[in-house]
Amino acid sequence: MAENTKKDTKYDGMTASKAKRERAKDERAAAKRNAARNKAIMIAIGVAIIALIVGVNVRNWIKEKNRTVASTDFSAMLNDDGSIKDVNVTDYVKTFDVNAVKLAKSDVEYTDEEMQKDIETELSSHKVVNSDKTLTVEDGSEVNINYVGTIDGVEFDGGSAENYDLTIGSGSFIDDFETQLIGAHPGEQVNVNVTFPEQYENNPDLAGKDATFLVTINGISELPELTDEFVKENLSEYAQTVDEYRQYLRDTNYKTKVEQAVSQYITDNISADKYPADYVKHLKSLQMTLNERDYAYMQQMYAAYGMNFSYSSIKEYFGASTDDDYEKVLQESAEKACLSNMAYQDLAAQAGIAVTDEQYDAFITENSVSEDVKEEYGKGYIIQQYILPGLVRDYIAEHVTVE
Predict the structure, then answer these.
(1) Which CATH number fits domain 89-95+270-402: 1.10.3120, 3.40.1000, 1.10.20, 2.40.128?
(2) Which CATH class, in words, describes the domain spanning 128-222?
(3) pTM assigned to the model
(4) What are the structural domain ranges in the chain?
(5) For the segment 193-251, what is each residue's pLDDT rounded down to a tens digit?
(6) Residue 98: which residues within 8 A CB-CB, separation 6 or more?
(7) Are strands 401-402 and 102-103 parallel, antiparallel or unpaired?
(8) pLDDT tens-digit profile of 5-44?
(9) Considering only CA atoms, which of 334, 357, 271, 330 is closest in space to residue 89?
């Protein structure tokens, strides 16, 4: 007998008509269930889409709400003594012991080579033109000349000058102009023949043309000798003799190097793991104002010199391509300023430094700070940014160990 492979169903044993009715009933129920399921899926999709749209809009709203707005209230969030209001800086900043700073001797030493270079720089500002006809122009000589340039016997624009200082071998002039003056003497005239470069951006009309310059050697510049007489005549504000002037250079440059090293030491030895959010937000607003002023100033400077200012926006000028990128630039600048401000406040407290009214008034007078500037920036900001840091650096410099 063959095996029955037909699967039993709920309709087995029913009459044909009843089975038909039951199937129809079940199909209608299944259709309702499918419809309900599809409706639920569509509702869920719709809710998800709405939630996504709302989420995006909310995030955009929050982003715009928190977008930095420029501020000129420089002393907001500061006390009159320059300290930050309602912020315990020791909760944020890590500094160092102001009485235990050590600097390497190599970082503050003023060498003999540096002194000689400074002396030569000073002497060069007092150089004289020697017209002694026995002198000879050599490679490296600085000569004072008059010259008139011609092409085919006709003078051309920009080809003439008087009392021009030219260092032979500097490559300042075209072709071998400079070398043709070697061997000449003060008072002599030299015909210098040159050819302008094929590509001459300074004046394309002259490109590739031959020219002749009639050059008059007025004299050869010489450095004066550093003598007691020279010091008395030109450097009496600092010294009366050569030895005194050298000591003045040692003292002042050593002090400057120590101050620079102290500033760098402070920068290298302060840090913060977190920042006071409200104060950083305020600093971002101030930084935006400073950036806008810097941008406007550079635009004016370029325009004044007839130059093209290639930055089309303030964001581009500060290296940002989008508003979000610019917010990051402002955030970075604000955190850097916040760190510095908190550090100097902490270091001043360690050293027992507090700016007095007399010190504030002296700063205002010595730096000719106008009433408008005082009103715009406020006492707190002026102390925080200009007076207190200087006092802190001076204190550390006085107590530093050099080894």
Answers:
(1) 1.10.3120
(2) alpha beta
(3) 0.70
(4) 26-66, 89-95+270-402, 128-222
(5) 999 999 888 888 899 999 999 999 999 999 899 999 999 999 999 999 999 999 999 99
(6) 347, 350, 351, 392, 395, 396, 399
(7) parallel
(8) 444 566 676 777 777 777 777 777 777 777 777 777 777 7
(9) 271
